[in-house]
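Dear support,

Our group has been running a series of protein-ligand predictions, and this particular one with uracil is the one our PI (initials K.S.) wants archived with full inputs and outputs. We had some confusion internally about which version of the output was final, so please treat the block below as the authoritative record. The input we submitted was:
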Amino acid sequence: MKDTLQLRGMLRIVVEDVAEQAAYLRELGVESLEYEINATTLQPAEAARRATPLSPPDVIASTPARALSRNANAESRAGSVPPMQKRSVTAPRVGEAATVPSDQTDMAKQTTRKSTAAPDTPAPMETLFGIVTPMDEASLPRPDETLEDIRLDIGECVRCPLSQSRHQVVNSEGHPNARLMFVGEAPGADEDAQGRPFVGRAGQLLNKIIEAIGMKREEIFIGNVNRCRPPQNRTPTPAEASTCKPFLLREIDVVKPEVIVVLGNTAMKNLLGTKEGITKLRGEFQDYRGIKVMPTFHPAYLLRDPSKKRETWDDMKKVRDYLNHSTVTSDK
Ligand code: URA
Ligand code: URA
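Confirmed final output from the archive:
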């Protein structure tokens, strides 16, 4: 009797969980789902340590007890990561110790540390051979640097002309050990006003996409190729992109995500250097220095053409399945 009651309670939680996922999927324009019952999606203890929530098929395939621990894990992980807050960080002068107010959150665990910042990123140069990107050198990983070091290096950046028109620098945010990272193009008006990436309408849709694969925004790392809003939301110029991109590449090196989703043409071309467009390459895993990269449509594009949501959902299922299956070899 007690067992029956317990089982009923667990089943109710599973059903509620699935209903919640279904609501997100409807918002995403997904009409039907293939639930695969696949024993290989069961995650080992290592995965539980990383506390990646399972995807809808896993919930169906799993025992209620797993669904319960999934919730507990997701909550504990989310709970342990305070949401990123807007912060003002004073850029240090060369050789000066950089300080971050101690009430600031996640990345500010070490409140005072010497900046390992290298000299400012050199400006791109137009040469006979096109735009030379001396920042390739600047984007080389710097041993032992932290996300905070990178943030301090960026400071109140004036390395490119976008600094003239922006309100504030919009830095990346998210879990410092995220398994999944999203990369967008550049902040829009809402992001420029709030100082956080993907908080406008496209950001709301991105949140739904994240939730549809059974994850929470807090466990993901989100950044843009450019951190300052271009006037009228124009595409950043190659020079602007190559001035800012090294900071993103350094963040990738620190976070070491297993998968990066590049959103739209600009993000994809800047990270992968591809000539092909997003319509051609989306849905197929690409490689960035050994990291799986999934190109998909930008959520702003999906808002303009909702019929493309179906393709993005297909792409995101590949990401979800890869993450669910790659935990065996994961060392994080
Ligand atoms: N679009 C982007 O590419 N990035 C943002 O942060 C917001 C909208
Ligand atoms: N063009 C883009 O830049 N992004 C998309 O997502 C689709 C078309």
